[in-house]
Design brief:
Layout (H helix, E strand, L loop, with lengths): L3 E7 H23 L6 E2 L7 E5 L6 E2 L7 E2 L2 E4 L1 E5 L3 H8 L11 E3 L8 H24 L5 E9 L4 H16 L4 E8 L9 H15 L2 E2 L2 E2 H14 L26 E2 L2 E2 L12 H31 L8 H8 L9 E5 L3 H4 L54 H11 L23 E9 L5 H16 L16 E6 L9 E8 L3 H15 L6 H4 L4 H30 L5 H4 L7
Parallel strand pairs: 1-7, 1-9, 7-8, 9-10, 10-11, 10-12, 16-17
Antiparallel strand pairs: 2-5, 3-4, 3-6, 13-14, 15-18, 16-18
Helix pairs in contact: 1-4, 1-7, 3-4, 4-5, 5-12, 5-14, 6-7, 12-14
The structure holds guanosine-5'-triphosphate (GTP) and magnesium ion.
């Protein structure tokens, strides 16, 4: 039985990260389809895509059949929302236009002006009927809706404000459907001055209305891109629109916000007099590699739902296993390997594959661009992509597999930056309340996962000084997943999703920057046009409380380690702090 997910992308960042995600997953499915003589639409694909006949208007839903029918055209199960028209208009003119139903797009022209309150309380009530209408249209063709998958930034006005209003409305209208959120947190030198307010107010909503949240930190993306460029000797210059991220800082240290030769601050719409479209294009180019890393993360998270596999995990299971207490639902992610191979797949002008498989013809719902050519599924879209069925021919040393798992828990592989005050190992390095390891690649097996979990746990039990220290009452708390399909760009990868006390650092960093502005009420009059001052007090208090809850867990676990190691959990039962 298909278990569908509906992606809801809100605001510029949500749309741009989402577009990279869809581009990447199309490449993955095209590569997998190229391995079979007649590509078919199976029930796994129906988790994220509708199967349609696009030669008629409105497109005809073909659904999933038994046996699976030859693949025709795909539509993303997605709702796209932005209160500025630029990003959506460009998407409608792009190669990916046909993937999306224009009926499921909601837009305005002027944006929320980096003001959470405008997005949440202004556009929220105004646009919620049309947004919920688009959601309903996306829900109707589903047989068994599993989850809403919300993508947005915390730092702006629309994704953060309207995005969290949508989340609250989904909680109200579909209380039984899981709400999984991936939100992009601003870097410390973000170009949006009001981002600490927006992030704090959004976090308050995420605490209340999401089942699980996987933040992606722009500072981590900037540092990862800088490291990749340093290792590959690239200066980060962009060519033919394919930007690369660069930084002059050394790998691992905090990079400046200079990406592809553009300072993100210089690209702030309010500080430049250049034509708005040019500015937007430059800004998007600057984010290109960062978004590719984010897309690789989302693709690894979802591959077990999109492809058939022996050990698949869906979002509900993730939430069940990784969220021990309702409000402690913030998950850190880390990915290995992360190198040029993960970002370079689209270089050299290679366009994403078309979503049409086999049949010609376009739907009139696709907007005005050039008529797309048919996609030939026999052509693997990226030279480095691996067909799914090459497992038996691939032999790899367990040493390199183990090295990949070890790399996973190095701080530089995490997509959320921890405080620089955190030691790498031992007391203060953070405690894991639960962990999930999700491996993908044709040459990986369940034994690779179990062997590496044992290795990681041995590091923990050896005096708690290793890199993976599980909380004593859940030292077996590893969830695993395995998908036989390679990521685009490399043969295998592994994703860790962890509920770690280190996530408190993100809350601290956001709320301390919000406090600095708020004690002076700087810029705050823009917010009180739409909301009460007490809303900000409540949001700050809620964020700080979650951070405290995590830190109390950490202190108690550290005490338990010091008073007798992991067995202490059994002797002195720890009470949840919430
Ligand atoms: N990683 C990444 N971050 C982005 C991208 N676009 C914007 N951001 C970040 O998102 C925040 C700004 O939010 P946006 O998504 O641009 O804002 P919005 O939701 O469109 O809201 P308004 O423009 O204020 O109406 C800042 O922290 C930016 O650094 C992107 O494509 N990728
Ligand atoms: Mg915007």
């Amino acid at each position: 039985m298909p278990r569908e997910l509906i992606t809801v992308q809100v605001g510029q960042c949500g749309l741009q990260v989402g577009t990279k995600f869809w581009d990447l997953v199309l490449r993955e499915h095209a590569a997998a389809a190229s391995a079979s003589p007649i590509p078919v639409f199976d029930s796994s694909m129906s988790s994220f895509f509708r199967h349609v006949d696009a030669r008629v208007h409105p497109v005809l839903d073909l659904g999933v059949s038994d046996p699976p029918a030859p693949l025709q055209s795909l539509r993303a199960r997605a709702v796209l929302v932005d209160m500025e028209e630029g990003v959506l208009s460009e998407l409608k003119r792009s190669d990916l236009a046909e993937l999306f139903d224009t009926a499921n797009m909601v837009q305005d022209v002027s944006g929320s002006g980096n003001n959470w309150a405008h997005g949440h309380h202004g556009y929220g009530p105004q646009y919620m009927p049309s947004i919920l209408g688009a959601v309903r249209r996306a829900v109707e063709p589903c047989d068994s809706l599993q989850a809403f998958f919300l993508l947005h930034s915390l730092g702006g006005g629309t994704g953060s404000g309207l995005g969290t209003a949508v989340l609250a409305a989904l909680d109200d209208a579909y209380p039984d459907v899981y709400r999984f959120v991936s939100c992009v947190a601003p870097s410390e030198q973000d170009d949006v001055i009001t981002s600490p307010y927006n992030s704090t107010l959004a976090m308050h909503q995420l605490i209340q209305h999401a089942d699980a949240v996987m933040p992606i930190h722009n500072q981590a993306l900037i540092d990862i891109c800088a490291k990749i460029n340093k290792e590959s000797g690239s200066g980060g210059s962009s060519s033919s629109g394919a930007a690369s991220s660069s930084s002059s800082s050394s790998a691992g240290s905090s990079a400046t916000n200079t990406v592809a030769g553009h300072s993100l601050i210089d690209l702030d719409p309010s500080t430049s007099s250049t034509d708005a479209r040019v500015r937007r294009a430059a800004r998007r180019a600057a984010f290109s590699d960062m978004n590719t890393i984010a897309a690789q993360l989302l693709s690894s998270l979802t591959c077990g739902m999109r492809f058939d596999g022996e050990l698949n995990v869906d979002l509900n299971e993730l939430t069940m296993n990784l969220v021990p207490f309702p409000r402690m639902h913030f998950l850190l992610s880390s990915l290995a390997p992360i190198g040029r191979e993960m970002t370079g797949y689209g270089r050299g002008g290679k366009a994403a594959p078309r979503m049409k498989f086999g049949l010609g013809g376009t739907s009139s719902s696709s907007s005005g661009g050039a008529a797309p050519s048919s996609f030939d599924p026999r052509i693997v879209p990226s030279s480095s992509a691996q067909p799914a069925s090459s497992s038996s021919s691939v032999t790899s040393s367990s040493k390199s597999i183990d090295a990949m798992f070890s790399q996973l828990f190095h701080p530089s592989s995490f997509l959320v930056k921890s405080s620089p005050d955190r030691p790498l190992v031992g007391r203060g390095s953070g405690i894991y309340l639960a962990a999930g390891l999700f491996a993908r690649g044709p040459d990986l097996s369940v034994s690779d996962l179990t062997r590496n979990i044992t290795r990681l746990k041995m590091q923990h039990t050896a005096g708690g000084g290793g890199s993976v220290r599980m909380i004593p009452w859940n030292s077996e708390g590893f969830k695993t997943g395995l998908c036989g399909v390679s990521p685009v760009g490399t043969k295998r990868s592994v994703l860790a999703l962890t509920n770690s006390t280190r996530v408190a650092d993100l809350f601290h960093s956001i709320s301390s920057r919000a406090h600095m502005l708020y004690v002076r009420r700087a810029h705050f009059h823009h917010y009180t046009e739409y909301m009460e001052e007490e809303d900000m007090d409540r949001a700050l208090e809620a964020s700080e409380q979650v951070a405290r809850d995590y830190m109390q867990m950490e202190y108690k676990a550290e005490d338990a380690f010091e008073n007798g190691g992991s067995s202490m959990g059994a002797k002195r039962r720890m009470k949840p702090v919430i």
